[in-house]
Amino acid sequence: MKINRLTVDGKDYFLPDPVTELRAQILEAVRAGGGYVNIPPLRGGPGIDILFSPGMPVTWTQIDVGGENAEPTASQAQSYEDPYDGL
Fold it and tell me: Which residue ranges does the record annotate as region Disordered (predicted)?
């Protein structure tokens, strides 16, 4: 199961899949110079309205919280090379 984390101005919001429509709404609000977007809750409830504006720090992260395929396959695994290893 995958959970999406939306970090807005240092605050985390956890969202269920899919987030494609929500991403489009946030992008549209920013392109329009700012606007409110309703962020749905992970579980039931009304969600929360957030005012998005140009220059606001927003980060998306997808977290695998386990399930049938908890271990990444070779194609899913990403190699990481430490840029500071030679220092």
Answer: 68-87
Q: Reduced to 3 states, what is the DSSP secondary structure of residue 84?
A: coil
The model's pTM is 0.66
Beta strands in 16-57 (DSSP E): 35-39, 48-52
Angle at 1 between CA 43 and CA 30, to 5 degrees: 60
Is the pLDDT at 6 greater than 90? The verdict is: yes
User: Within a 10 A sphere around the Cβ of 58, how many other Cβ atoms?
Assistant: 14
What are the domain boundaries of the chain?
2-64
Backbone dihedral angles phi then psi of residue 43, each to the nearest 5 degrees? -115, -170
